[in-house]
Specification:
The protein is an alpha+beta fold and 660 residues long. The protein has helices at residues 156-163, 169-186, 288-330, 338-379, 448-468, 487-496, 506-529, 558-570, 595-600, 634-659, and strands spanning 3-4, 10-12, 17-35, 47-48, 54-55, 58-59, 65-73, 83-89, 107-112, 117-122, 131-140, 143-153, 404-411, 420-425, 432-435, 475-480, 544-552, 576-582, 602-604, 609-614, 619-624. It is built from ten helices and 21 strands. Strands 1, 2, 3, 4, 5, 6, 7, 8, 9, 10, 11 and 12 form a twelve-stranded mixed β-sheet that branches. The protein has a five-stranded parallel β-sheet with strand order 16-17-18-15-19, sandwiched between helices. The longest helix has 43 residues, at 288-330.
Length: 660
């Protein structure tokens, strides 16, 4: 039963994976702050907002909208976080209401992942406030509760953040407002569909009359247990409110203007005493790709937690046995003889029983995860799929960029056949480093030359995946191979015509490529800061760029190294990404000057290696690269499609330029 909260009232949360659904009559900004036991926010990195939407355990929308969904996983919250405060604010500088008193009362609901409401709260009595702390999820004696707050701030986001202890609240509020304004400027609302045979319902047009449809009473949030949903980032005018041009929208207030997201598939009912049958795409999300992405990460988190619980139980059993044995040995009366033997046997039996009990629980959870993986893996789109997936056989160049990309697989030693896809969000926020050196964690090729060849092959496989998931003309790859030692590995890229230019060789080639990309980063950064993107040179390639640097530091002088570090630091923010294929030992001559470069890159290996540390549960995940199966032609097939699409686009642009 849903708890309808009033200001100050709290309610226990029966589960830890939640959604917070927000409904308002106008586009609003949604965010969250993480606080300590006193609710103090200790820095900007403790705030999830549209410019930085993800923190440990919470994800907020990237744009302003009239309806929002916030994803919350309280189990993933760090131990020092005791309060999660949901913030709502009105966007500034976009022509909307300047205070909450001029719009309908916002409605907030805490629900399970299946949409079942746990608690709801309608924020009333707001007048001049332009920001409000809506709800608070707080930890009390090991359990989580929700409290309705409804504290408004006439000073807006800056005042609200400052009240929570954030000294740089004004600067962060300015960043949030700027990010929201940019997002709303890019958003184009989809025109409402005109129903067939209904000539009465249409929008007002200049110079033409309208027949308004009969008005119907609006449904309040209290009356509707499931607020209307819409894709995030689509601004809407309130019913009957003047539009930007001064005309009035007479569209029927009860008619849908956008199709709701398709409901996730549901599993068939399980037999009594049996676990539910897994279904691909049963997580939350607006599209199947988003639901599959969330489901994969849910599997990753479930595997991490269940393995951590098993290891903790084993450690506890060992510690308890050692304590009992210490007590036996510390007493001279029980140190030897039948009593001592009996005490030792009893301690070991208890330890064995605890371990077996923990292993039974682990095996049960792992069996469920394996069953889910067997269902999810065949349903993954090619951006998430392995190279041996049949989905690649029907590959076509996409029309839009997916939300994530598969960079390999992860598994733990407790069950090595259970592999979780390693998905990273696009665009990449940091560069990649394919480590061509021997780490010693796993037995790879004994020949260093073979390991370097595998490193180059892994780089090509990842670059091909990145090319394959971008529309034609929106992603370009450049290669620096100073000595030409990886010509065989780069042959598929060269032969398919997907490279912007042939691999650069020699010191002169290295300098030319780095200078061109450095200039591109400088120009785009200056254009963005001065808000003059229209002034960029017409011949500047604005597509996302991936620079593959092979055999570093061969062919690099001090200037080239400085440019490379600059691209690694500044490039991702303006669409220039770096992929290093190098052995760190080869760069020891530069000393510690390159340490920041290595730390800024995501280290991947060409062979299985357990180098990916999980700081939350203490695991060392084994990473396996996304290598193309031996003898498979899928790489050439995919790159061929990408190359043909790129050639067709260049030909079309040439004809357009010639015709102009």
């Amino acid at each position: 039963m849903t708890a309808e909260l009033v200001r100050g009232q709290n309610h226990p949360l029966p589960q830890t994976r939640l959604e917070i659904r927000i409904s308002a009559g106008n586009p609003i900004v949604a965010g969250a702050t993480l606080g300590d036991e006193r609710g103090t926010v200790h820095g900007a990195e403790w705030v999830a907002h549209p410019a930085s939407p993800q923190l440990a355990g919470i994800e907020v929308p990237k744009q302003a909208a009239a309806a929002h969904r916030l994803a919350v996983d309280l189990d993933a919250m760090p131990e020092h976080i005791h309060r999660v405060t949901v913030l709502l604010a009105l966007p500034t500088g976009v022509g909307g209401p300047a205070r909450f008193g001029a719009m309908a009362a916002p409605f907030v609901a805490v629900t399970g992942l299946d949409g079942t409401e746990i608690a709801s709260y309608t924020i009333t009595d707001l007048e001049s406030e332009s920001a409000v702390a809506a709800l608070e999820l707080y930890r009390r004696q090991g359990a989580w509760k929700v409290r309705a707050i409804g504290q408004g701030y006439a000073g807006g986001l800056a005042a609200m953040l400052h009240d929570q202890g954030l000294e740089q609240g004004a600067d962060l509020a300015a960043r949030i407002n700027e990010a929201v304004a940019r997002g709303m400027a890019r958003s184009v609302a989809q025109p409402p569909p005109r129903p067939e045979g209904d000539g009465r319902v249409r929008t007002a047009a200049a110079g033409g009359g309208t027949d308004p449809a009969p008005a119907q009473p609006q449904t309040s949030p209290q009356q509707s247990q499931t607020p209307p949903q819409q894709p995030q980032g689509t601004p809407q005018q309130p019913q009957g409110a003047p539009a930007a041009g001064g005309s009035i929208d007479y569209q029927h207030p009860g008619r849908r203007t956008a199709a709701p997201p398709p409901p996730p598939p549901t599993a068939p009912p399980a037999a009594p005493g049996q676990p539910a049958q897994p279904v691909a795409g049963d997580a939350s999300g607006w599209s199947l790709d988003e639901r599959l992405y969330n489901q994969v990460w849910g599997m990753f988190e479930d595997l991490a937690r269940t393995t951590a619980a098993y290891r903790s139980a084993v450690d506890f059993a060992e510690s308890r046995m050692e304590q009992e044995l210490d007590r036996v040995l510390s007493d001279p009366r029980t140190r030897v003889g039948p009593a001592a033997d009996s005490a030792r046997a009893e301690a070991r039996a208890k330890q064995t029983g605890l371990v077996e009990q923990a292993r039974t629980a682990l095996d049960r959870d792992l069996a469920q995860l394996i069953a889910e993986a067997e269902v999810v893996e065949p349903a993954l789109p090619y951006a998430y799929a392995r190279w041996d997936s049949p989905v690649w056989q029907a590959y076509q160049v996409p029309m839009e960029v997916p939300m994530a990309l598969r960079l390999g697989d992860l598994h733990l030693p407790e069950r090595t056949d259970l592999r979780i896809p390693m998905l990273v969000r696009l665009p990449l926020e940091r560069g990649l480093w394919i480590d061509a050196g021997r780490s010693g964690s796993f037995d790879g090729p004994a020949d260093s030359g073979e390991l370097r060849r595998l490193s180059a092959d892994a780089a090509v496989a990842i670059a091909a995946r990145m090319l394959a998931v971008h529309p034609a003309g929106e992603f370009a790859v450049r290669v620096i191979d100073p000595a030409g030692s990886a010509a065989g590995s780069f042959a598929p890229l060269v032969g398919s015509g997907v490279l912007a230019e042939p691999p650069a060789a020699g010191a002169q080639g290295v300098s030319a490529v780095l200078a061109a990309l450095t200039q591109r980063v400088d120009l785009v950064q200056m254009a963005i800061r001065s808000r003059a993107t229209d002034a960029l040179p017409p011949d500047l390639d604005t597509a996302e760029q991936l620079l593959i640097v092979h055999d570093f530091p061969h062919g690099f002088d001090d200037r080239a190294v400085t440019q490379l570090r600059y691209l690694a630091d500044e490039g991702p923010s303006v669409g220039v990404h770096l992929m290093m294929v190098a052995d760190r030992e080869d760069a020891r001559a530069y000393g510690p000057v390159l340490d920041p470069l290595w730390r800024s890159l995501l280290r991947l290996t060409p062979v299985a290696d357990d180098h990916l540390a999980d700081p939350w549960v203490g695991h060392a995940w084994t990473y396996e690269p996304p290598m193309v199966p031996p003898g498979s032609r899928v790489l050439g097939q995919v790159l061929g499609e990408v190359g043909r699409a790129a050639q067709a686009l260049r030909a079309a642009r040439a004809r357009q330029s010639y015709g102009g």
